[in-house]
Specification:
Formiminotransferase-cyclodeaminase, Chain B, domain 1; 13 strands; Four Helix Bundle (Hemerythrin (Met), subunit A); 4-stranded antiparallel beta sheet; Alpha-Beta Plaits
Length: 566
């Protein structure tokens, strides 16, 4: 899995499109980074840019665009409605996929330090990247804005986290930058079967964290209650980490609750959707669906799908594409217009830009034809992994069929667990189909390295040995994962839908063949590896796996025959 983060820098220029173009061009120069959005504002004189990619690539792109902004934007002449104190005013990093907030904090602080050291810009770390509690709040770090910067950076209390603490002409031009690690923000509008903005606002106040002002007597027209400091007393809403308001959308002819989910780990989208539906129903209003504004991480839809499948007592062991479909239909994401995951999900957009031809994306016929061609790859290793994937798929199918067999409703969760295991195994074995071919190509690349002198010969030899070792590890991994398929198939023979017992048996046959086929690849590649200790260890493990696979297949097939024969 690829670690993906998002960066959302805000630049203090929203009117000169040539300046904005030059800044965003720096982002597009960095390989592996995808520029998602450029949103300039003339009144605020500020542009919000969004790009994503793997952490190192994103941090490099962030540094380069901050560098360009320093060259092009002179804060001494900046005027705009939005609070600001630097040419690159803020530069938050956001976790998107397969990366923790703790990891993102490390990247944010490293980026902050690099900007400070190499570009001579005072840096304040805020939100999760902050070094002290009072600096978590951006407003505290940016208090007084650009005009107060000289006094702030030279004070002991508010000196920068990184970079210069003495105001000079260079800083006068660039200002300061705030760098953070923050949660992903999801913007969503809930569609209502009403045209009333007042009722939409009432629902928004019911749910948003801030809530509504407390009033004496009548909750709508009564006098607002204030505390001892004269501030209004608020009745909190039901959803943490949310901001919301109601409005009327002329384009659609309906009212909506417009919401920002500021921390989807605290309040996921599906939780917010259910709560807005509940509060709307209390007021005689129905939520007909919702629309995502901008982009979302894939996990938002997957988590929603899991939630709704559990509510339905349905198996969670289904494909990712089916999961996405369940999420879209459950929350009505296509209520107002078609919802295309390829255009709305960050990971899919990145994959589209880095699309490589994969064996597993071929049709069955094309895969067979490619295998039959005179090219040495794909070969037995890829075919073995594919047989293992088919075995896992058959075991998963029986689990899914069993999970909603008439009369077995109370057992749905039991079979869902098996189906999830099978789905995970299937996906990993499908990955190994292409990985086996890649490992072969690594060996070919190593043999193609130059060998004109002793140094080149040594490097070539090292590369060949490293590639050969990897070409052993990949089919060995196929053996291990394929052997795990037996557990699912046997469980389905023992406890699954008896009408599908033959399918579980065929799954066991696939698993046995996958283990044995991958073992042949381990053996042939191991014969040319010089690391004899490694060869001895892996061959001992692989030999035992192969023997155990033969035994396990025989045991499962004996059970299958007994059930079929009655």
């Amino acid at each position: 899995m690829r670690k993906i983060i998002e960066c959302v820098p805000n630049f203090s220029e929203g009117r000169d499109m040539e300046v904005i173009r030059q800044i965003t061009a720096e982002i597009e120069k960095v390989k592996g980074v995808k520029l998602l959005d450029v949103d300039p504002g003339a009144t605020t004189n500020r542009t919000v840019v969004t790009f994503v990619g793997e952490p190192d690539d994103v941090c490099e792109a962030a540094f380069q665009c901050v560098k360009k902004a320093k060259q092009l934007i002179d804060m001494r002449h900046h005027k705009g409605d939005h609070p600001r104190f630097g040419a690159t005013d803020v530069c938050p990093l956001v976790p998107v996929a397969d990366i923790t907030m703790e990891e993102v904090v490390v990247y944010a602080r490293k980026l902050a330090e690099r900007i400070a050291n190499e570009l001579h810009i005072p840096i304040y770390c805020y939100e999760n990247a902050a070094f002290e509690e009072k600096r978590r709040n951006l407003a505290n770090c940016r208090q007084g804005e650009y005009e107060a910067l000289k006094e702030r950076i030279e004070s002991q209390e508010w000196k920068p986290c990184f970079g210069p603490c003495k105001y000079d002409e260079e800083i006068a031009r660039s200002g300061a930058t705030a760098v953070s690690a923050r949660e992903f923000l999801v913007a969503v509008n809930y569609n209502l079967n009403t045209t009333s903005t007042r009722r939409a606002n009432a629902i928004a106040f019911d749910v948003r964290e801030k809530g509504r002002p407390k009033r004496e007597g009548n909750p709508i027209t009564g006098k607002a209650v204030k505390d001892e400091n004269g501030n209004p007393v608020m009745i909190p809403g039901t959803l943490k980490s949310t901001k919301a308001i109601g409005w009327y959308i002329r384009e659609y002819g309906i009212a909506q609750v417009s919401m920002n989910l500021t921390n989807i780990s605290v309040t996921p989208l599906h939780v917010a959707f259910e709560e807005v539906c509940r509060c709307a129903a209390n007021r005689g209003i129905r939520v007909t669906g919702c629309e995502i504004v901008g982009l979302i991480p894939k996990k938002v839809l997957i988590e929603a799908a899991r939630f709704y499948l559990k509510k339905q007592h349905r198996s969670l062991g289904i494909s990712e594409s089916e999961m996405v479909k369940i999420a879209v239909k459950s929350m009505g994401l296509d209520d107002l217009k078609p919802f295309n995951p390829q255009e709305k999900v960050i990971e899919y957009l990145i994959e589209a830009d880095n699309k490589e031809e994969k064996l597993v994306d071929m049709t069955c016929t094309a895969f067979a034809d490619e295998t039959a061609s005179e090219s040495p790859a794909p070969g037995g290793g890829s075919i073995s992994a594919y047989m293992g994937a088919l075995g896992a798929a058959l075991g998963t199918m029986v689990a899914n069929l069993s999970s909603h067999k008439p009369g077995w409703d109370e057992r749905w969760e039991e079979f869902s667990v098996w189906a999830e295991k099978g789905e995970a195994l299937k996906n990993e074995l499908l990955h190994l189909v292409d990985e086996d071919t890649r490992s072969f190509n690594r060996i070919m690349d190593a043999f193609g390295m130059p060998k004109k002198n002793d140094e080149e010969k040594a490097l070539r030899s090292q590369a060949i040995q490293a590639a050969t070792k990897y070409a052993i590890e990949v089919p060995f991994r196929t053996m291990q994962k394929s052997f795990e398929v037996f557990e699912i198939c046997e469980a389905m023979v023992d406890t699954g839908n008896p009408n599908s017992v033959s399918d579980a048996g065929v799954g066991a046959l696939c698993a046995r063949s996958a283990v044995m086929g991958a073992f042949l690849n381990v053996k042939i590649n191991a014969s040319s590896l010089k690391d004899k200790e490694f060869v001895e260890q892996i061959m001992a493990q692989a030999s035992k796996l192969e023997q155990d696979a033969r035994k396990k297949e025989a045991e499962i097939l004996a059970k299958v025959h007994r059930i079929i024969e009655g």
